[in-house]
Specification:
By secondary structure, the chain is α+β, with helices and mostly antiparallel strands. 20% of the residues lie in helices and 28% in strands. The protein has a single domain, classed as VC0467-like (3-Layer(aba) Sandwich). The chain is globular.
């Protein structure tokens, strides 16, 4: 298995949006970073649902038989390529096109994986997302310096948990020793 070399980058980390984030689409968001290198970064928002389409409807549109008939949530992965699907998952599933993020998680965008999930044969843990969040070269580093985001290690219990979505934001902050009550949207620069 070959994993992405992080070399000080944030691959495999969670980004937690701070109250002063300038882009309202990411207010109280938690983003799992799938790829981060000198060319930019790509991640999935793990605490926002699409709401306009169900897993069953996606399977119907793709002509895939839904044998399990479950209510799998579909996440808003981000504002880029919102019609494209991504599956962040545990590594008990891998295929040729799977990006091995680290020793715990993979990212796959294939119909084969959706077919397996529809028949309850997919990975133990997974998160289905439409769209992704992306940053150009050094853009994420700039946003971190501006205090738009805080980074914390990726946590399977937060990523795949069925907990309340806003709770994912608070739990991610808690991993950093920060309480939501300690945050303010007012900030300054020295």
């Amino acid at each position: 298995m070959k994993y992405l070399n992080t070399n000080g980058y944030l691959t495999g980390q969670l980004l937690v949006a701070m109250p002063q984030i300038p882009d309202n689409r990411f207010n109280r968001s938690v983003v799992y970073i799938c790829v981060h290198n000198d060319q930019g970064a790509m991640g999935l928002v793990i605490n926002r649902l699409v709401g306009s389409i169900s897993f069953r409807e996606i399977l119907q549109q793709l002509g895939i038989q839904d044998e399990v008939s479950r209510n799998t949530p579909i996440y808003f992965g981000g504002p880029i390529e919102t019609s494209r699907g991504f599956v962040l998952h545990s590594l008990d599933y891998q295929e040729t096109g799977t990006i091995l993020v680290n020793k715990h998680f993979g990212l796959t965008a294939s119909l084969d994986l959706l077919k397996l999930i529809a028949t309850n044969q997919g990975p133990k843990n997974y998160l289905l997302a439409l769209g992704y969040t992306g940053w150009g070269a050094h853009q994420l580093e700039k946003e971190l310096q501006e205090n738009s985001w805080l980074a914390t290690p990726g946590d399977e219990s937060i990523i795949f948990s069925p907990i309340n979505l806003d709770e994912k934001w608070a739990l991610s902050l808690g991993k950093l020793g920060i309480s939501v009550s300690q945050l303010s949207s007012d900030y300054g620069h020295a």
